[in-house]
Model the fold of this input.
Amino acid sequence: MLKKLMKYEMPAAGRKLLPLYGALLAAAVMLGIMLRSGDYLDGIPFMMVIFAMLYSCVATAVVVMTFVVIIQRFNQGLLGDGGYFNLALPVRMDTHLWNKTLTAGIWTLFAGFVGVLSALIVAGIAGGLDLSPLLEIFTNGFKFFIEVFVIFLEMLIVLFAAGCKLALQIYTAITIGHQAKHRKGLCSFGAYCGIVFFEGIIGTVALNTGIQHYFMEFLRNIREGFWQVSVAMITIFAITAAFCALYFLITEKQLNTRLNLQ
Amino acid sequence: MALLEISKLSKSYGGSFSLEDVSLSLEGGQIIGLLGPNGSGKTTLIKLINGLLTPTAGAVLIDGMEPGPETKAKVAYLPDRIALPDYMTTAELMNLYQDFFADFDRAKAETMADDLGIDRKQQLKNMSKGTKEKLQLILVMSRQASVYLLDEPIGGVDPATRDYILRTIISNYNESAVVIISTHLIADIESVLDDIVFLRDGRMVMHDTAENIRENLGKSVDELFREVFKC
Done:
């Protein structure tokens, strides 16, 4: 059932996000061409400023819209009118939640990828992209290539997990806010602030124990740079996954035991 | 065991009851009219049966099971609003139903869509309100479900289509199924009803067969409704 849900969920979110991603890449190409022409050096850089602003605006829109779509797909799809159809499907609540979370994670990852790609396009067209480090990956031997590849993969996994965590924070806040009789949106926002505050408290308590010193010491004892980075990545992933599990359980429990589609 | 068993079911919001102490036991093979004025608890009862609301007290059992994925595979639910994704076309919506409901009869849906002249390539958002309602009903009635929950199925359509829809309900529902129809338009559906449930202020005030009402009270269901719920 998860596969079937995602078959419909991915294009539903993509309808809104893909045109924006396309616009960001187009803005990057135009900005790159403008920077390459170099005309702005001789006078008032009107066109360069306009295209730089356009690129910044579209990049901001990508971030905002990804965030908005994550909220909308959950709020309207499960707790709004769409819930009257979706929650009448023969699908378990945790499968619905996996569907929303994984889709949000994938689109966050894709937004990050498009962001990096657009920056590379600007630099590439403007002539400021130095490809020699990239070539070194292929010329420094098989072991180095594998290490770079693994670190890149770890970065993607961490970014994906971060996207899932952001989505689950939002879902938890929305389901808590949904229990309120009035001003559900405001209550959801309040719940989100509470969740962020809760994470802040956990972080502060953890840092007060001095755990970070032990961790840094542990990293220093690892001789190879590759393993240092990998251990750091795995640790970040583990912490993110633990928060994901917590928010997933809270949201699922709320939806299973206190669902009130009004 | 009855196909649909509702025992002492209540739902309250902040202390005020939308539905209070309702008990019903319904066997398959009947069409039940869930009747009552606005705010009487009809939609609340239907949503509780389909697990879209959490009951404050009492229980619902469908084929011996509490509302969940297993019962939703057996329940065909028509909500009182358009809940389908509006960017999808008729054909895509049929695919969607086919993917999720094993009992969905695609050929039947295609035939009904042809009868009502619904364009397969038109997106839901570009259809009129009446056409959206017709399409939603077609999708629901094309399932071979055990329980049909139809919340205001004929509210927004013209009288000719209303006749078609009622014919559709009678001729397409699984004969061992129970069909619950909630509506205000009693005169239009009276002829198809086997059982009548009257709700007022969240409480069940009457449950009888349509035949008993006509024979024993000498009134049509519509007349009785007007008398019971006289303002």
About this structure: Residues 139-262 of chain A form one domain. Chain A has two domains: 1-129, 139-262. Chain A touches chain B at residues 1, 4, 7-8, 12, 15, 81-92, 181, 257-261 (CB under 8 Å). Chain A has a mean pLDDT of 87.
